[in-house]
Amino acid sequence: MAKKVRRVRPAATSGGQSKTKTGVEQPQLTSEQQFQQEYAYVIKDLRQVFLLAGVMFVLLIVLNLLLQS
Questions:
Q1: Model confidence over 11-47: pLDDT tens digits?
Q2: Do the beta carbons of residue 22 and residue 30 sit within 8 Å?
Q3: 29: Cβ–Cβ under 8 A, 6 or more apart, which residues?
Q4: What is the biggest distance separating any 2 CA atoms in the chain, rounded to whole angstroms?
Q5: How many CB atoms lie within 10 A of CB 35?
Q6: At what angle do helices 31-38 and 40-67 cross, to 10 degrees?
Q7: How big is the chain by its Cα radius of gyration, in Å?
Q8: Mind giving me the DSSP string for 27-68?
Q9: Under 8 Å CB-to-CB from 6, ≥6 apart: which residues?
Q10: Which of 20, 33, 53, 55 is surrounded by the fewest CB atoms within 10 Å?
């Protein structure tokens, strides 16, 4: 069985003061806003695909009506 090795903890900062960042932080975007920014091109492409599918479906119906006679 392997011998356990105890890890050394880093020394605590004196005075209990924590390091803080100076400056203004950027506001966090909500998940919906992030989604819209990252996948805007997907929504655009989906609209084009559904429009093309609709046009092809209408074309099939028109061809069916014309070729039945």
A1: 776 665 556 666 777 777 778 888 888 888 999 999 9
A2: no
A3: 37
A4: 93
A5: 13
A6: 60
A7: 31
A8: PPPPHHHHHHHHTHHHHHHHHHHHHHHHHHHHHHHHHHHHH-
A9: none
A10: 20
